Amino acid sequence: MNKKLTLVICIQAIVIVLLLWTLIFYGQDEYETYQKAHEEEIESPLRVAIKDGTSTVQLNANTQKNSGIYTSKLKPASFHNEAKALGTVVTIDPLLEAKTQYVNLQAELRLAESGNSHHVTQYQRLKALNDDDKNVSDISVQDALATINADNAKIMAIKSQLGNLESSLRAQWGNALSNLIVGNATSEHLTRLFAHKNVLVQISLPLGMGTPDKDSVLYITPLGEQVSPITATYISPASKSDASGLGKTFYYSAPAESLRVGMRVNAIPKGTDASKSSGVIIPNSAVVWHDGKSWIYQKQKNDLFTRIPIKTDTEVGDGWFNQDLSPQFEIVTSGAQLLLSEEFKYLIKNENED
Predict the structure, then answer these.
(1) Shortest CA distance to 217 belongs to which of 274, 268, 273?
(2) What is the domain range of residue 174?
(3) Per-residue pLDDT averaged across 10-39, rounded?
(4) Residue that is last in its domain, among 260, 275, 290
């Protein structure tokens, strides 16, 4: 009896398991259908379309609010296109070395000329004695003359060195800076260079600009530093090009307080005509980046947004100056990145379903 009861129980258990598997197998499709319908019910009412290469996203007001998507109209703005240039604070060590060399050569020249003057006097005295019944020998007179000739040769060699040094200086540094060494430079901004109160700045100006006027000035600031503009005074054309190889280079003298050798500087010529452009400022929060391009979302209707490309050539403050868009153009200023993400999520989903 017990064996029969046990057998019945086992058979019932097997039947129950089979029934459960049957329910699961046949109920799977219905469950997936229900789940899909449920997801569609709670899915955000988002519709994306692409027409003629232009993407549009449609969102109702509640979804916009819940997603933190806000818009605003662009305001008119103007931008001054100032002529800017770059420069470098250069060392004047070669000029200081040339100054030392020039001073030493000048001292040698004065010493040689002084010795020559003494030797000429001595030669004249010996020659007079020789002419007076040979009171001194002919050899003594010849030796004195040889000494004078040696003096003259040395003087000529020193003068040649001085001439070569001057020519080299003028070719490398220009007349104005060379006159600090070989001439009489009286300009304060030049003499302050050797006193280390000023520094020498090489500025590369655009090719379209002419040579600056004598003692004209421009304003410079160290690259990346927020300091008051520093007035730099024009000296002369420079013989070397800028590291970038662009533009024409010129030497300027500027106070040394905030400048050090090797610093890169921005420069704006004083009195440069600046053209004024009209347009709008697009805030950074409105710009999204995709496929190497910059885009914004324009609000077409209350629930429709269009993604359009924009130019980002001119960065100003917390945004971009743009001349292609008109004022009152309404764009998404908060949530633009979310729109882009949802747009591509929707497109990827459609591709998978296909």
Answers:
(1) 268
(2) 92-182
(3) 62
(4) 275
